[in-house]
Design a protein that fits this description.
- The protein is an alpha/beta fold and 265 residues long.
- The chain is built from ten helices and twelve strands.
- The protein folds into two domains: 2-97 and 234-263, 3-Layer(aba) Sandwich (Rossmann fold), CATH 3.40.50; 101-230, Rossmann fold.
- 38% of the residues lie in helices and 19% in strands.
- A six-stranded mixed beta sheet has the order 2-1-3-5-6-4, with helices on both faces. A six-stranded parallel beta sheet has the order 9-8-7-10-11-12, sandwiched between helices.
- Helix 6 (149-158) links the parallel strand 8 (141-146) and strand 9.
- The structure holds 2'-monophosphoadenosine-5'-diphosphate.
- The site of 2'-monophosphoadenosine-5'-diphosphate has 15 residues, from helix 5.
Amino acid sequence: MDVFGLIGNPVGHSLSPPMHEAAYEELGLDARYVTFEPDEDGAAAAVRGADALGVAGLNVTIPFKQDVLDAVEPDDLAERIGAVNTVDFSGETPTGHNTDAIGAVRALRDHGVALDGTAVVVGAGGAGRAVSFGLADEGMTVRIANRTVSKATALAEDVPDASGHGLEDLEALLSDADVLVNATSVGMDEDETPVAADALHGDLAVLDAVYSPLETRLLRDAAAEGATTVDGAWMLLYQGVEAFERWTGRDAPVDVMNDALRARL
Ligand code: ATR
């Protein structure tokens, strides 16, 4: 039996186990997906321990995505982002990958969104970093807006063809933009939005990384303007799909994983 898992703290409410196990069942794979909660400073030791135990793959979530870099060989994208959310143990040494970036890309593509032109990413934390690299690597011009402007400008120096701004610039930044991604926690379990409704327009595709609730105030406002909307469960789904495909070498049963995820949201 292959064991896959997730390390994070806390991981109690993670939706990854049912999403991945639905895929194992669908494809008849003899595998389990379990959660582990190492101590705050235990991420690298946990990865080494998992390797020693023959664990086949690990996802990594908050607060360990940077810490595990010490215990893996990161690929180019994970190294540039500076964070790992997927560890693969199939080689000589554990390798580290970042499927959050491609998760956002696939979520948008799945909804017919062309990834050229200009994207506005709100947020310069871990999620904002991954999304900014993902969209820039697709060839988009990325404008990063953050409450703390210095974090946006620092991130923009790392991301190709990007600029950093404060939230007060959002209306101007969005006027000719094609894609908007909320990569802040604003809207999570609250009816708040990081972007004033007036700044939205019908030519935008809007992805909200927040998935609780699925229909955030931002997505509601965007839909009212006639924009294409993509909820955060799509991003969560596709980061998992990418991890599954890397670990198993099989095409993921995306619909089954999506159903398993949405049944719990
Ligand atoms: P994650 O890894 O999920 O991105 P994070 O690294 O803590 O989490 O980043 C949270 C992001 O949400 C940051 O961009 C943060 O802005 P600051 O860098 O200024 O802290 C943003 N954020 C959180 N609460 C916010 C709020 N009330 N208004 C605007 N932005 C907020």
